[in-house]
Amino acid sequence: MAPVRNPYTGEIIASVPTVGATAIGSVLQQARRGRRTAAALSRASRASVLEHTSRLVEQRAESFARLIVSEAGKTITQARKEVARAVNTLSLSAAEARRNAGEVVPFDSYEGSENRQGWFTREPLGVIAAITPFNDPLNLVAHKLGPAIAGGNSVILKPSALTPLSALRLVDTLVEAGLPEEVVTVVNGDADIAAAIVSAPDVRMVSFTGGFATGEAIARTAGLKKLAMDLGGNAPVIVMDDADLDEAVRSCVSGAFWAAGQNCIGTQRILIAHQVYDRFRDAFVARTKLLRVGDPLDEGTDIGPMITRQAALAIQAKVDAAVEQGAILLCGNEVTRSVYAPAVLEGVPTTSSIWQEEAFAPVVVLQPVESFEDAVEQANAIDYSLHAGIFTARLDRALTAARLLEAGGVMINDSSDYRFDAMPFGGFKYGSMGREGVRFAFEEMTQPKVVCINNIGGV
């Protein structure tokens, strides 16, 4: 049994059974049985299960939200928003089960094929391994289970060992809504069982959200199968001199510090036109200092704990190292238990890990830029990217940024921290593999089958 701790209080709130690599045989046996069951379900049945689950989660929203708070440390306000998003993700998945069945292929548009007609269908891949992180313990699980079930697949789900409870409750709710138990197999365990799952030939796709080191290990281990990975980011936001500064400050504070910064599209580097840099910096720091940190169940709390005290101490050490390298700390960087006071820095050397790597913490870097071109160059300087943002009143500049910024999503007059669960979501450059967003994940998790009829008689 593995304990699950409340990140804020440190108390053990539950224990979950775990298995090792020796359990892989029974795990795969159930997944194979689930594959046959899932493929036999009609689209109407899959959609009905997902719609029913969506309604049940919505009816139990407060209970789900409090579970997220207790295991992940999100504030109650943030947890409620995550539940609402999961409801939408499941609803979108139900719609996809009914909608995305394939297309007619215009064979007769090609000379020599005038007597042929046909179509393609979207068929399940089979067994999908879903490995999910701690920071969105409900909605990111829904983003993998919903499209997989809609597509007729079975799933081996390995949730984060730090936050397995929301995943387990969601799976129980799916079964309550009518999903056969064998369609989703939940595995709690160590890296050895994860490696055994990933390398199994029966697994036809691995959908992973997490860090680069684990992603690289999965890619080395997986063998010949489909990989879809969200490996994090280091999101830049550009603020030009013609921007609405009040809105830019408000949006960027939220984008940087939502979910205690434990957010792959959280704003980390803000590149500000030098003409307005001082005004933006002073307003940003003042607004940051107003944020309340502490008990995530308190309705007035803006920033709850990080997932562990070790994570809070680790980011504090990285910020201290940046300061030793010449950065200026404008506020924050204090640790109380597992709560980290949001840190704002300027003058960070571009060689610093805080500039180069994903912080995954409530830390933001402010940097003046001389021009729009300079801002785009600095934004693109990192080897990996998920989202970027720009604040400007000029449409031509906004559209140029959308074209030039190397990111999976460009948010105009918004921070990088915006995601709608129906849109394609994923990275550019290093580590970019596949897309989430319900329709796009559904298509990743299915495969086309072409049917062509040769009408020999030509009638």
TrEMBL record:
Alphabetical keyword list: Oxidoreductase
Entry GO MF terms: lactaldehyde dehydrogenase (NAD+) activity
Residue intervals passing through the bilayer: none
Keyword flag Oxidoreductase: yes
Domain Aldehyde dehydrogenase: 3-451
Gene3D superfamilies with a match to the protein in the record: Aldehyde Dehydrogenase, Chain A, domain 1, Aldehyde Dehydrogenase, Chain A, domain 2
InterPro entries: Ald_DH/histidinol_DH (IPR016161), Ald_DH_C (IPR016163), Ald_DH_N (IPR016162), Aldehyde_DH_dom (IPR015590), ALDH-related_metabolic_enz (IPR051020)
Superkingdom of this protein's organism: Bacteria
Protein family membership: Belongs to the aldehyde dehydrogenase family.
Full protein name: Aldehyde dehydrogenase family protein
Organism: Lentzea alba
